[in-house]
Specification:
129 residues; mainly beta; Porin; 7-stranded antiparallel β-sheet; 77% strand
Length: 129
């Protein structure tokens, strides 16, 4: 997997980044396993990430994040299909020591010939000492 991000717009309360995620895998044991395991796959997913600061005073800040992406996913013997991603999150930084955030993401993509929708929730906490 290769991931990159480049800032394209910055204002006092808004930052916009373009992202790109490229991934590939190859499996030597794709038959006689209790789960679907593609022989090989390849994905490309460009994204737009927007961070909007809702409140900022000294070291305390509260922001919301928006994500959108559209790309392709290919599996050997199953063809290529579109991938869509939408996400929303919030982040709160109390000072230089404590930060917490959450991100809810919906991803729709093909897998083993059928479309799947994944709902993901990422919650993180950072405590610096």
């Amino acid at each position: 997997m290769l991931t990159g991000r480049e800032g394209v717009y910055t204002a006092p309360k808004v930052q916009v980044d373009l992202g790109l995620e490229v991934g590939t895998s190859h499996n030597s044991m794709s038959e006689d396993v209790p789960y679907f395991n593609p022989k090989s796959d390849f994905s490309v997913l460009p994204t737009v990430n927007v961070n909007h600061v809702l409140y900022h005073r000294y070291e305390t800040s509260w922001s919301q994040q928006f994500q959108a992406g559209a790309g392709t996913y290919s599996q050997r013997d199953y063809g290529t299909g579109g991938v869509g991603l939408l996400g929303y999150g919030q982040r709160y930084s109390w000072n230089d020591v404590f930060e917490v955030g959450g991100l809810l993401t919906v991803i729709n993509r093909p897998y083993d010939g059928d479309r799947e929708t994944d709902l993901r929730l990422l919650v993180d906490l950072t405590y610096r000492f």
